[in-house]
Amino acid sequence: MTTYPARIIHLTIDRDWRAVYDFAHRPQNMSRWASGLAAGLKQDGEDWLGDGGPIGTIRIRFAEPNDLGVIDHTVTLENGVTVDNALRVVKNGDGAEVMFTLLRLPGTDDAALEADAAHIRKDLQTLKALLEAT
Asked: How would you class 95 by CB atoms within 10 Å of its CB: exposed for 0-12, middle for 13-18, buried for 19 or more?
């Protein structure tokens, strides 16, 4: 059995967790806070297609809408590599905690891991700013 080192990147949003989930789980909203998807997503059947920049077109499949705050998604790169991403919104008092599990996959060096973590933190901060402003 193979497991990878993991890092949980999280922050608190001062907004009801259901409102955070309702906004964050919609692929149509992701271009507003997930900078890697700034060009937006187009639906293609059950999947969503996005411009992954230098890595080409990415195909994303999201967890079905649910009452548990789960926004897990599988990203498939043009080269066929698939990455499973765990993203959760959970109740934290009157607000929400948003958590992304970053897995260190084989071949990821320290610099790339830190860059990925910083990118995720920035995106979650953008989500926080958007939701706390409304």
From this structure: middle
CA atoms of 72 and 68, how far apart (whole Å): 11
Residue 1 lies in a domain: no
pLDDT computed for residue 112 by the predictor: 92
> Domain of 33?
6-133
SS3 of the chain: helix, strand, coil, percent, to 5: 35, 35, 30
Number of domains in the chain: 1
Between 55 and 130, the higher pLDDT residue: 130
CATH number of the domain encompassing residue 84: 3.30.530.20
In angstroms, rounded to a whole number, what is the distance separating the alpha carbons of residues 13 and 124?
A: 9
pTM of the model: 0.91
- The rounded mean pLDDT for the chain is 92
